[in-house]
Amino acid sequence: MKFKRTLLSMAVIAATFGLTACDDDTHNIDVNVTVPEGDGTLPPIDDGNKPVCPPTGDGDCDDKPSTENPVIDMGVHIPVDLSGMDITRYVNPFIGTGNLGNTYPGATTPNGMVQLSPNNGSNGWEYISGYYYHDARTSGFSHTHLSGAGAGDLNDILVMPINSRSDFMINEGSATLNLEASHFKHKDEQATAGYYKVELLDYDITAELTASDRVGVHRYTFPRDTKSEIIVNTGFKLNWDYTSDSFIRWDKENNRLIGHRLSDGWAASQKEYFVMEFDQPIKNVRFAYYDKETKQYVNAPADFTEIGSINGSQTYDAVNDRDVFGKYQYARAYVEFDTSKQGVAVEAKLALSSTAIGNDGTNKAPLTGAFLNLTEVADKDFDDVRLEATEEWEALLGKVKVEGDETYKQTFYTAMYHAFLGQTTHSDLDGKYYRAFQGRNAYPNGRPSWGKEAPLVDDVRLADANNDGKADFTRYDTFSLWDTYRNVQPLASIFAPNALADVVLSMLSYAEEEFTPIDAAGTAGKSRKGRLPEWTFKGNETGMMMGMHSTPVIYDVLAKGILDARMTELGFSQTDQDNIKARLITAMVTDARGKTSQGVSWIGEYEQNGWVPAQLHDTETDSYGKHSPFKDSWTASYSLEYSMNDWMIAKSIALVFGEDDPRYTEFANRSNNWQAQFDFGGEANTPWKGWFKARDNNGQFIDKNWTDPVTGGNTGKDWRPDMFNWAFSESNGWQYFFSVQHDIHGLKDLMTQADRKFNPEAKDGALFAARLDEYWSTYPDRNAGDNQFPVFNTGNVGQHVQGNEPDLHVSYLYNYVGQPWKTQAAIAASTNVCYDNTADGICGNDDFGTLSSWFVFRALGFYPVNAGSVYEIGTPMFETASIDVGNGQSFNVVAKNVSRENIFIQNATFNGKAFNRTYLTHDEIMYGGDLVFTMGDTPNKQWGAAADSTPPDTGIGEFLHEKSLPVGAR
C-alpha cells in the first residue's frame, strides 16, 4: 500500500515509513527517505548476458500491469478462461518468477508430487526454480521444481517437443546440457492454477501442461512437418543437481516409455521412476547419450529399444576402489510421431514414483510404483485432468472469498496459491515412499575418486502411523521449516488441517525410521533412528538452515485439536492416538538433548550453557567460510531459535502429559535461554546497550576491542548491530532483535530492566517502543566498507527486511506496547515494498509460500506472531473477507471504508460487541463470527491502546543461567 504524504506527518513513524514506487527499470525506490550515504535505490539483479524478454526485441513483453482490464490483469499475458474457473481466474503464477522470488509458473495441484513447469535451460541463482521471467527461451518442461527456494535442485525428466523447423540449441554451463530449445514471447504464454500454455516460436508448436497429484500431463499440438519428436531427457541437470544414472526403455507393445533418473545434489540421494504413455502411435524412438570421450552427444545404435540399465548403470571399479558412472549417465529418447500428412495433437501422461517403476498388472500382481500412480488419470484426457486440477484449486482457494481492491485481489489469490506449493506429496497411492539415510546417490559404494566415504543406505518405507502394517496417511516432504513454520503451516491449520496433520505424521516418520549405518570401511554399526525434519525433501535430510522447527508445527496441531480430528478420521483407536502423541513428545525431546540428538547443531553446548559460543576461524577456510570471521556466524541465532523450540516442546508436553511432567519444567526453563544472549551493556568493552550479541568461549559478549580466547585473534573491527555474518542467520542484530516470538512480553520487560540500569525513571516498554521506532526509521549504510550485505536483504523499510524471514512478524509488535496504529502503518509500508501483480512482485525468495503466506494473513487482517493459536490484529486489506471454517460456518472480516489511504482502525466490533483488543484466538476464528472494522486515514491512538488490549503474556519457566552472565551484562 502507498501512504498519502499527509499521513506521513501524523505520527512518529510518519517520518519513518516512506512511499515506495517503481522507476522506469522497475527497481524499488524510496521517494521520501534519504538512505545515508546511498542513492536510495536497491541494487538491480545482474542479468549478465542473459536475453531479456525476448532477446530479439518484443515491444509488448513488459510485465507491468495493463490498465485496460482492471478485473483480471495479467499484463501482456492473456488471462486463462477455461471451464470450471472462478477463483482461479485471479491466480497469476508469473508473480515471483522474476527478481528474487524464484517461483515457477507451471502446472501442479495443492501440495502435489508433480510440478510440471518450463525450464529456460540456464544455470544460475535466478534459475533455481528452472524458470526466470526475464529469459524468453525454453528448453522444455520438467516434472519437479522447488518454489521460491534459495538453493537449486530437482528439475527431473525434461520433456521438449521439436520438429525440423529449427536447430536452436542452448548450451550454457556444461557440455552435458546441449539442449534443443525455442524462443517464446510472454504475450503467447498463459498460466493459472493447474494449467500452463506457451507457443514455441521456433517450431510453431503449442505446448500445454496440466497435472494430477502424481502425474504430469502434456499436450503438444504439432504442425505438419517431415519429422516431429518429443524429447524425454533424463540427463538434464541444473545448479546443485547432478544426474548419477539414466534409464529409458521403449515398450513398443504398449506405446509407452518407462525409466528412471537417479540424482545427487542438495538432497544427496534422489530417485525418480516414471512411466510415460502417449495417446498417439509412436513412429520410432531413437536414443542419444553424452559420450564422455568426445564430449558431445551421439546417437545410440538404431536397433536400441532401451538405454542404460533398469538396475542402474553405475559400477564398482575394484582395481581403483572407486564408483564409476555408467556409459549412459546422460541419456535421452527422441520419440517420433507421424506429422508428414497433417498436424497432430499428442497427449502424454508421465507418472512419477520415488519407489519403483513398479508392476504394470500384467502378471496379475497388484499395481505398484509409477504404474500405480498412473491410475490417477486412467481413462482421462488432458482436458479431464485439467478440469480436475482446477476443481482442486477452486475447492482450496474458494475457502476464502475476498471483495474489494481488485488489483490486490490477484496478488492475494496468487499468494494463497503459492502457500500450497510446498509440503509436497512423497508417497505413492499405496503409501510407499523412498527414504535415504546416509551416503550419496552418485557414489553408492562410498567410493568417489577423492577417497572413501560412507556408502549409500536407503530403503522404501510405508506411511503407517499406528504401526499396524497398513498405509494410513499421506507422506509429505519438502519441509523448508526455518522459513515456513512462521506462517505457511499456520495458514494450513485454517485451510487444510487434514493435510497439516499428515505433515506432522510425516515428520514423526522421519524421526522414527530405523536404519543400520555403515562406515567407510563397510562395517555395520548399531541400528539407530533419525530426527525430526530440519530441511528435507525427496526423502533426504539436507541439514540446511537451523533450528528444531518441526516443534512449532507439532505444537500447533496438538493445541488446535487438528491431529486428534485427523486420527479419529483415520479410524485410529484412542490407544493409538495417545501413543502417537507420546511418540511425538519423545521425538522432540530426543532432538533437543545433546546425548540423544541426531545432528541438531550445537545442541549440547546450548543445553549446557544456555547459549552457543562463537570463535574465529582457526584453519584456512573456503570462499564461503570467508564471508564471516567466525567459524559459525549464526551462534546467537541458535539460542534465540532453540529457546522458542523449547517453548513449543514444553507446551506440547503440557498438552499431552500435563505440567507435572518433569520434562515440562525442564523445557519451560530452557525457553528462557534467549536471555543468555542479551547484554544490558554500557561497560567499557560493551558500549552497545540492550542488544543480543554473540558470546565467546569464556562467555564474554563480543562487542568492542574483543580478543578471541581460543585463537588469540581479533576481527579488526568492533561490533555494531548492523554487522552481517557475525552472529545471526542471514541477518544482523537489527533483524534478529525481536526474534523472541514466544515471549515478546518477556523481551519487553527485560529491555525495561536494561533501560532502568541507566535511567531509573524509565517507563515500562519505553525502550522496546523506542527500539521499534528506530528499527523502522534508520536505514543501513550500504556503503560501509566493513560490512557485507547479503542478497537476502531486500524489501527494506528502515532496518526491516520484508524479503527474508527473521523479521516478518516485527510489524505486529507495536501491539504489545499499546500502539497498534503504528503496527497498521508498518504493515502497509512492508506490503508496499514487497508485493505487486508483476513477475517481480515478490521482493525475496518466496520459500515455499512464506512471503506469500505473510501477504495472505496481512490481507485478512491478522497474523500468528508465535506461529500458533494467537493471531495479532494488523490492518485488513479488503472490504470483506469470508473464511469457510466448516460446519456451515464462516469467519467474516469486514473493513468499512477501507482503501489504500484508509489503513488505520478507528473502531471494531466482534459479533456485534465492541472489540478493542489487538489479538484473536484460533478458536474464535474457527467458531465463526463477524469481525467488523471501521477504517480511516488518520490513526485512532485510543483503539487497542489499553493495557488489557495487548496480546497475552506467553512466557513460562525461569531463566537459570543469569549467574553465569559476564559482569555488567545485567
TrEMBL record:
Domain called Glycosyl hydrolase family: residue spans: 372-937
InterPro entries registered for this protein in UniProt: GH-type_carb-bd, GH92_a_mannosidase_put, GH92_N, Glyco_hydro_92, PNGase
Cross-referenced Pfam families: Glyco_hydro_92 (PF07971), Glyco_hydro_92N (PF17678)
GO annotations of cellular component type: cytosol
Ranges of residues in domain Glycosyl hydrolase family 92 N-terminal: 90-353
An annotated Gene Ontology molecular function: peptide-N4-(N-acetyl-beta-glucosaminyl)asparagine amidase activity
Signal sequence, start to end: 1-21
Source taxon at top rank: Bacteria
UniProtKB keywords: Hydrolase, Signal
Coiled coil ranges: none
Any single biological process term in GO: glycoprotein catabolic process
Protein name: Glycoside hydrolase family 92 protein
Organism (species): Photobacterium iliopiscarium
